[in-house]
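Regression test case RT-17, inverse folding.

Input:
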């Protein structure tokens, strides 16, 4: 059986125009397996795009993102984590400092680094440390090249934190989801209580609904709602939430390298820019409800999009051109999080920072 990531690769390759035989050869799968998931995708997509007044959208969405069953008994967690690489980098820096002080004979060798890592609680073998140190020692210096993009090709996503007083409860932190198109610098933002899976999926669904289509590629940093875990030194495994969105809307995704905000520079700048322009003025950080704050934020983003940028273009006008190159519009993706709450002594449960009363009989 295949997993959800392989299913996503099959569908995206099919969207790119590859034949089923070519997909099977590329992924080392049976052609019958590829035929099964491609035919299922085409059938559900055609059904979803047809207009039926009695169509149950939630059932079709579930068919898109249904997770294939597979055996997890042979899974082995990766030992080389960002924390391990950071610890090795600190050892390298200590060696460089000692060489500058004329203490060459007191620098750490690889076997010493391995012993140090074990003392720090890392469960790694000496051979793993040797491969990791070799990788870090042979990395080439990065070259930064300004890129040019085609309309609808790429959009970047990031989270930002903003402090607001909503409902006269005092200033609290709220999470701002920000989208920025790489071609025209069109900005779209929305506020949420937390950076959880529901907010992540809902923000994408709202943005694609506003755009009347999905971009070809989405770019993320190593946020927890998008990256499930690191696989090896550079590969990342996406979360189920991101994989479901990718399959449903048909977009590809790309992750930035660690501590490389420049790889999504459009949205990295947009988070600071939108936050400052929208909420830095007098009386611009107090609202009655979160819905009112989001309406204000949307209006401010549209005002920013209506202003010329560095090359003289207007993002709002450029975005109208981009819409012609987006993937076809889909009904809005629906998601939810099931959770079990415990009733406290006041006969309430806590959901997303809000207390809801429950009948006494449910204690």
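Golden output:
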């Amino acid at each position: 059986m295949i997993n959800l990531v392989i299913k996503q690769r099959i569908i995206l390759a099919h969207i790119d125009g590859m034949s089923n035989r070519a997909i099977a050869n590329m992924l080392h799968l049976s052609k019958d397996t590829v035929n099964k998931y491609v035919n299922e995708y085409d059938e559900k997509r055609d059904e979803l795009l047809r207009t039926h007044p009695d169509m149950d959208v939630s059932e079709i969405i579930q068919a898109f993102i249904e997770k294939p069953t597979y055996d997890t008994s042979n899974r082995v967690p990766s030992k080389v984590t960002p924390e391990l690489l950071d610890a090795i980098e600190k050892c390298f820096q200590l060696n460089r400092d000692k060489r500058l002080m004329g203490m060459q004979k007191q620098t750490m060798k690889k076997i010493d680094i391995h012993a140090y890592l074990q003392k720090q609680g890392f469960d790694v073998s000496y051979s793993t440390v040797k491969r990791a140190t070799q990788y870090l020692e042979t990395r080439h210096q990065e070259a930064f090249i300004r890129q040019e993009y085609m309309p609808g090709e790429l959009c970047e996503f990031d989270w930002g934190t903003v402090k607001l007083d909503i409902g006269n409860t005092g200033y609290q932190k709220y999470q701002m989801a920000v989208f920025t198109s790489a071609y025209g610098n069109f900005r779209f933002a929305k506020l949420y209580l937390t950076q959880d899976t529901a907010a992540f999926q809902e923000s994408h669904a709202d943005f694609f609904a506003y755009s009347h289509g999905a971009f070809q590629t989405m770019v993320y940093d190593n946020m927890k709602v998008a990256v499930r875990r690191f696989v090896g030194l550079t590969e990342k495994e996406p979360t189920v939430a991101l994989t479901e969105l990718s399959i449903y809307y048909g977009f590809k995704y790309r992750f930035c390298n660690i501590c490389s905000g420049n790889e999504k520079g459009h949205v990295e700048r947009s988070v600071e820019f939108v936050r400052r322009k929208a909420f830095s003025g007098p009386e611009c950080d107090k609202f009655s409800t979160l819905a009112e704050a989001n309406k204000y934020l949307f209006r401010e983003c549209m005002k920013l999009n209506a202003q010329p940028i560095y090359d003289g273009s207007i993002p709002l006008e450029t975005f109208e051109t981009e819409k012609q190159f987006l993937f076809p519009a889909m009904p809005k993706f629906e998601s939810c999080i099931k959770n079990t709450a415990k009733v406290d002594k006041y006969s309430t449960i806590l959901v997303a920072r809000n207390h809801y009363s429950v009948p006494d009989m449910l204690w």
